[in-house]
Amino acid sequence: MALIEIDDLEVTFGSGADAVRAVRGVSISVAAKESFGLVGESGSGKSTVLRAICGLAPISGGAIRINGAALGSRRDKGFARRVQMVFQDPYASLHPKRTIDATLAEPLTIHGLGGRDKRVVSALEDVGLDPKFRFRYPHQLSGGQRQRVAIARTLMLEPEILLLDEPTSALDASVQAEVLNLLSRLRAARGLTFLMVSHDLAVIDHMCDRLAVMQQGMVVEQIDRAALADDSARDPYTRELLAASV
Fold first, then answer.
1. CB 108: neighbour CB atoms within 10 A?
2. What's the per-residue H, E or C state across 80-124?
3. How crowded is residue 177: how many other Cβ atoms within 10 Å of its Cβ?
């Protein structure tokens, strides 16, 4: 059984003549401890799939299951313990008036978990930050450091699944590789399952075992890393993405 199953997912914004079908009949499955990528140009619906999983986008059809259990209309604390999301912009995802310590401790407070100091320090060390960063504010950190904090926050509840929405696209090129390598190390050390979105096929190829290519809200092809290396993609749009990433 797949850990993440998405069957015939539909996401529609608006209604009537103004309705926009952002996701149209998407079906994918992701095994436990697998890293699966969604790739496509801006507006292809890939980030909307992640938001639908988190309950941040309106599902108009289909089903999403986590370890065989269908997700309802609301995401409860149990969902948050199992599934966490890393957003594209690390500055926008961190409260500007809260210290890093307060940001990392918030999930512990919400879920009634103890050992605050030990857990915060451990999370910072896991993402390669010195504990002295605890009492700084987001504006005092670089973009790469802020994204490391955002990743650390997702680790506080020890989830099984990380949803990664363009986690390095807002970072300088010199920092992107560091963050991607950090994510790969965390996945291996913690046995995490990744569902990762990017417009950059090279990033997905580096990070993911398999991927789905999206265009205009639909999956046009699913392919694994070996097929990419062998230049075995069949869909013309996938081949365009491959050519652009060389």
1. 16
2. HHHEEEECCCCCCCCCCCCCHHHHHHHHHHHCCCCCHHHHHHHHH
3. 13
Give the start-to-end residue ranges of the domains of the chain: 33-51+73-245
**Residues in contact with 93: Cβ distance below 8 Å, sequence separation at least 6, in sequence order:** 87, 150
DSSP letter (8 states) at residue 71: P
Type of residue found at 167: P
pLDDT of 246 above 70: no
Pairing of strands 69-70, 4-13: unpaired
For the residues 161-166, what does the mean pLDDT come to?
96
Contact in structure between 161 and 2 (CB atoms under 8 Å): no
Helix-helix angle 116-126:143-155, to 10 degrees: 130
Give the relative orientation of helices 116-126 and 100-110 as an angle to the nearest 10 degrees: 120
In the structure encoding, which two tokens stand for residue 117, read together?
């100091």
Q: What is the pLDDT of residues 20-68, one digit of tens each?
A: 999 999 999 999 999 999 999 999 999 999 999 999 999 999 999 999 9
Backbone angles phi, psi at 222, to 5 degrees: -115, 135
Contacts of 63-69 with C-beta under 8 Å, sequence gap 24+, read 63/5, 63/6, 63/7, 63/8, 63/9, 64/4, 64/5, 64/6, 64/7, 64/9, 65/4, 65/5, 65/6, 65/7, 66/3, 66/4, 66/161, 67/1, 67/3, 68/1, 68/5
Q: Which CATH superfamily is domain 33-51+73-245 in?
A: P-loop containing nucleotide triphosphate hydrolases (3.40.50.300)
